[in-house]
Amino acid sequence: MDPETAEAIERSKHLLKQISEDSSVPRNIRRAANEAIAVLEDESISPAVRAQNAISIIDEPSQDPNCPNHARTKIWHVSSLLEPIRD
Fold first, then answer.
1. Per residue, what are the HEC states of 30-85?
2. What is the pLDDT of residue 23?
C-alpha cells in the first residue's frame, strides 16, 4: 500500500472514531462509524475494496435527517478521502 493510501485510511479512521465517540450523534450513526472502522482495519482485503465498503456503510447514515451537521460533514470528509483509493 502506498503512503498516500495509508494516510487517507488513517485519517478516515480518526474521523470515524471521533464520530463513534460523540454522544450527541445517534447510536445508529455511531454504530455505522464503528463498522466502517472495522472494515478499514481488515487487511485481508485490498485497500480499494476496504475504502468502497466503508463508503457504502457510511453513505446511508449521512443522509439520516437525525444526523447532526458536524457528523455529516465528517462523514462527507471521510468519503472524499476514501473515494480516490484504487488498486
1. HHHHHHHHHHHHCCCCCHHHHHHHHHHHHHHHHCCCCCCHHHHHHHHHHHHHHCCC
2. 94
Low-confidence ranges of the chain (pLDDT < 70): none
Residue environment code for 52-80, b if the CB has 16+ CB neighbours within 10 A, otherwise e? bbbbebbeebbeeeebeeebbebbeebbe
C-alpha cell at 20: 463513534
Alpha-carbon distance of 12 to 19, in angstroms, equals 11
| Domains of the chain, each with CATH number or no CATH | 3-82 (1.20.1440.50)
Which grid cell is 30?
455511531
Question: What average pLDDT is seen over the chain?
Answer: 94
